[in-house]
Design a protein that fits this description.
Blueprint (H helix, E strand, L loop, with lengths): L17 H15 L16 H10 E6 L5 E3 L2 E3 L4 H11 L4 E6 L5 H13 L5 E3 L11
Parallel strand pairs: 1-4, 4-5
Antiparallel strand pairs: 1-2, 2-3
């Protein structure tokens, strides 16, 4: 006599609570793990003063404050003299880079005059320094 079953048994893995279990494991490991700082060896690194001095020769700093006063390498100049001064610096060092930093309230006319002087001196390697703003932080 042969009995046939009308129902089949299937294996089933319940997955409805898998997300809860993963979240609980994550919280458990976050709470129990201890991060330690490695003390290692105390090492005093050498300073590269020669390269800092070399970089100082390659960069010419141009500052303009809120009142429109112009300073090139710690020397106060007029906007009319920027072209001649930078031309002299570039003839001394053709690889000169101009670091340009202005106050955010500087009149744009002064900035434009200085940029025209740099263009007149053929100072094409110019970068503008800015302060980084961190998102969510207001000063």
């Amino acid at each position: 006599m042969n009995f046939n079953r009308s129902t089949k048994k299937e294996t089933y893995i319940p997955t409805s609570s898998m997300g809860d279990i993963a979240f609980l494991l994550l919280v458990f490991f976050m709470v129990t793990v201890v991060f330690t700082d490695e003390s290692g060896l105390v090492v005093t690194l050498p300073r590269a003063e020669a390269s800092e001095e070399g970089l100082r020769d390659l960069i010419s700093n141009v500052y303009i404050n809120e009142a429109g006063m112009i300073s090139i390498d710690d020397m106060i100049v007029r906007s009319e003299d920027v072209g001649q001064l930078m031309m002299r610096k570039i003839t001394e060092n053709p690889f000169m880079i101009v670091a340009f930093k202005t106050d955010k309230f500087t009149p744009y006319g002064v900035v434009s005059e200085v940029m025209e002087g740099l263009k007149e001196a053929n100072a094409v390697k110019v970068f503008f320094n800015t302060d980084m703003e961190m998102p969510g932080l207001a000063f």
